[in-house]
Backbone:
């Protein structure tokens, strides 16, 4: 266990240092080439801010994993390498999918990619993960469904991957939100992988956490006037979304990693409830309003918190804390509460919270109108 602790701590530390070195170089290139996030009516930021922070993610994570493999092998500690060999097919296809989506994100941040083309690439990434053996084959009682037919499992897996990738992409609306939610989720997944004796995936999880920590600092606390602030862009959010989708599917397909009383679907997807429920609510709202569901607006949960007067940083902290608490509650209760009852409770709580936010926003808007009329 001490070897596992050393590897995971090193993964977090090495990736954090690597990203800390890389981000200033990305900022320098962004300012020299004038690669900034455009300011428009939907954006809440002001000033020129680079949007290429996500370029640091994959190189940092891959460098960390390969370095640890080399260190472990050099010191005759081959467990990490053996773990990679045992999962080589899964890892190979997943790396191909990550590289494909990473490059798509870079192109999108540079010159733009139509959302239809992005969907095609995301579906292709889903097919690659299915080829890796990560297709859902059992819903473990969700909606009363157990074992899935193979074709239905393939289709559902692709839908889940595309959905999670876009949920992370769309929740990235205020400083620190997507990275904060991902830090909580990847830390949680890392602990599960350690418990399940999956060292390579534990290293992946904590390497991702380490990569996100310096980015979070620059994104949340960076000074715009000094050119020290940046966004992750689609490169970062798409890459993170696929890593989270991979980890969740890996756990959903590894019931043996969990205790007998645990529900694999709850364990796998609990950290993703907030971004996923938010996307569903926003899409239904747009469709009900007669709008294209893919048209950007200001109806996400963070927009509502901002609309009631909450500062952006506190809105981010609030959502991340809610996600952490909701994850903990689901994981603790899944041993005694039916998965469908848990799901209904999650949706009900989220719906009540959003209705309260909508009421508070209307009240605040009415007060502003009354004040302007006086």
Residues:
């Amino acid at each position: 266990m001490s070897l596992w602790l050393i590897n995971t701590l090193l993964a977090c530390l090495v990736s954090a240092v690597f990203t800390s070195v890389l981000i200033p170089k990305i900022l320098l290139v962004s300012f020299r080439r004038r690669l900034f996030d455009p300011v428009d009516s939907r954006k809440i930021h002001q000033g020129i801010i680079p949007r290429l922070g996500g370029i640091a993610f994959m190189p940092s994570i891959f460098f960390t994993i390969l370095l640890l493999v080399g260190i472990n092998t050099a010191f005759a500690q081959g467990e990490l390498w053996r773990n990679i060999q045992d999962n080589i097919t899964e890892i190979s296809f997943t790396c191909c999918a990550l590289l494909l989506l990473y490059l798509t994100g870079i192109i999108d941040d540079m010159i733009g990619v139509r959302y239809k083309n992005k969907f095609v690439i995301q579906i292709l990434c889903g097919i690659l993960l299915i080829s890796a053996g990560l297709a859902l084959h059992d819903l473990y009682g969700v909606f009363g469904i157990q074992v899935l037919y193979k074709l239905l499992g393939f289709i559902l897996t692709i839908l889940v991957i595309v959905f999670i990738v876009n949920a992370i992409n769309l929740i990235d609306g205020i400083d620190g939100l997507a990275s904060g939610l991902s830090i909580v989720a990847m830390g949680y997944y890392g602990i599960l992988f350690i418990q399940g004796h999956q060292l390579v995936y534990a290293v992946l999880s904590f390497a991702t956490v380490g990569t996100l920590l310096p980015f979070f600092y620059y994104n949340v606390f960076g000074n715009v006037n000094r050119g020290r602030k940046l966004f992750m862009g689609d490169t970062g959010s798409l890459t993170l979304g696929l890593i989270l989708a991979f980890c969740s599917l890996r756990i959903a397909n590894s019931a043996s990693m969990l205790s007998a009383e645990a529900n694999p679907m709850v364990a796998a997807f609990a950290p993703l409830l907030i971004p996923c429920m938010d996307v569903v609510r926003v899409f239904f709202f747009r469709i009900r309003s007669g709008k294209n569901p893919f048209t950007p607006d200001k109806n996400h949960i963070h927009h509502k918190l901002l609309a009631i007067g909450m500062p952006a940083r506190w809105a981010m902290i609030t959502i991340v804390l809610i996600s952490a608490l909701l994850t903990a509650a689901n994981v603790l209760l899944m041993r005694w509460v039916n998965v469908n009852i848990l799901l209904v409770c999650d949706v009900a709580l989220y719906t009540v919270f959003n209705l309260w936010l909508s009421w508070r926003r209307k009240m605040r808007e009415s007060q502003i109108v009354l004040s302007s009329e006086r």
In short: The mean pLDDT is 90.
